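Hi everyone, sorry if this is the wrong subforum. Our group has a chain we'd like a structural model of before ordering constructs, and none of us has done structure prediction before. Sequence below.
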Amino acid sequence: MRCSQQDTSVQRGRYTRGCELDVTPEISLNAIRREKTDKTFQVRAVIGSGMAWVLLDSGSVHNFIAKRAAEQLQIPVQYQRDALPDGGKLASSGISRNLQMAVQGYAFSADFFAIPLEGFDIVLGIHWLK
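Answer:
Right subforum, don't worry. Here is the predicted structure as tokens:
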């Protein structure tokens, strides 16, 4: 993600301007379809003062958080603005940087793409193992 110094101030529930995501997030069909397979595992996680359902998914490359969960847990999300044909801007892809959580007693922080996601609050792809 490329943001100017001005763009990096994140406010809860507000969009930042001018940020560009420089990667294409990769999520598995299992996560999108809410399917549990031999390549997935579901656990509970502590995020801030709240709890979330987490899908550990070896088929997803990146980490994701449901936009709904980010709002409920008051997690700051930076949104990029996509250009519309008429020159307007539309907030679409978002990212939450250095989100701290604890899963099964293991505390860590990671970056998460904010997307519309049903069935799970968080998807941890193989990227979080790094």
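For your construct planning: Confidence is low (pLDDT under 50) at residues 1-21. Strands lie at 40-47, 50-57, 64-66, 78-83, 89-103, 106-115, 122-124.
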